[in-house]
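Entry type: protein chain
Record version: 2
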Amino acid sequence: MTPHHDPDGLRLPIKLDSTTNGEFAPIPLNPVHRDANRSALQGATRNAQRLGLRRRDFLVSACGAATALLGLNAAYAAQGRRGGFYDLPPDAALDREVAEAALDKQEFIFDVQGHFVNPSGAWLQTLPEGARPLSGMGKAACTLADEPGERSYLQCLSGEEFVKDVFLDSDTDLMVLSFVPSTFEGEPLKMEEAHATARIVEKLRGTHRLYLHARVNPNLDGDVQRMDEMAERYPVAAWKTYTQWGADGRGFFLDDAPGIAMIERARKLGVRNIAVHKGIPFGRRSYEHSTCVDIGRVAKRYPDVNFLIYHAGFVPGAGEGPYDPQRSDGIDALVTSLKVNGIAPGGNVYPELGSTWRYLMRDPDAAAHALGKLIQACGPDNLLWGTDSIWYGSPQDQIQAFRTFQIAAELRERHGYAEITPELRAKVFGLNALKLYPVPDDVLEHHLQRDTIAGARQNYRNRPDPSFLTYGPRNRREFLNLRTWESG
């Protein structure tokens, strides 16, 4: 059978490109990344020939992913970047059993930051005439785009496609649907629409595979008051907020009046998980409120509230090295805020890796320092797995990369970083999230192994056809187009 996606095998399973989640401008690849991609494709061609396979068939196999990761190792090592690496035996490039032992599903995976855009939602009514949001996404060029209608291409991003990307093409077991910052009227995914997406999964007997955030911008009129209605009508698992966002362009700190009002209302409603976007700024004006200086303060003030730090305070492109107490942003600012306010590892602060890990895959040294510092400061039981997909397409490549990533022994010895053991990976991948998003035992023990999605995944993987496409903007033009309709 000829695959529907990429029949010539030109796309790599590890999607190392400039795609972003739309919250920061794409950062071009460096020569080392282009060399790694080129070397991986050449290696896939050779290895496919040695095994008598078509290149596409090889690339969708565990050996294809192993070849790509080993190619990254070689390219980074040639540049002297040895602080972190993908721990794979060389035989994994050609030996299927070896590759599968290293890369196939072993852990329970709970992705606490996923996104979905409703292709027929009410947000379309707010767009100017002729606007074509998300049309630059590679997936938007599917056959459904040829059907009648000005924005028929949005059907390529439907709930069914979301299910395929997340639950068939990746090893993800559970996911939290999160939200983007917006006015109430302009949300590209409203709460009732997110709930409808969860119902799509439930119809497949995918019981409890999707959890829901509720968006709260407390500096937006009416948002704190709407929390009561949200909690009453929907199974809200956490409140999602953006301290660097405001309708007038100004943000807030969590211990400012709007933030305190939101936290107090969350405590009253009994949903005491606050998921706060930190690190990625939305421009110079929002930079101050994107930092983590307020996290330790509110964590100390409200020990009965869990603070989930989405993106972990990371600033793409700024670099991560050993902890620097003088640095006022990035992961170091989060670490300092915790230290100053006496929040010990294992406390009520939970950093999350959405977009952060995706970007760190480009730089093994920065990845080693970032992960090392987060585990050191917050504890091995508090780091949360998130991917920020669908913006990065199926999260399988992020899963496979993290499943094999290791901090070099030299850095562990010098800075006291933890070794990334199978036990630690299992905690990060999903076990840590269960403390915040409780899942019934019968779901964990029975439904996840036996529901319709589990059966569909097993059948699908007899002949997988992943797209290996990313969705978010890949260059400045696509980024500006996306920001234009988001703010319009």
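Comment: The first helix runs from residue 31 to 51.
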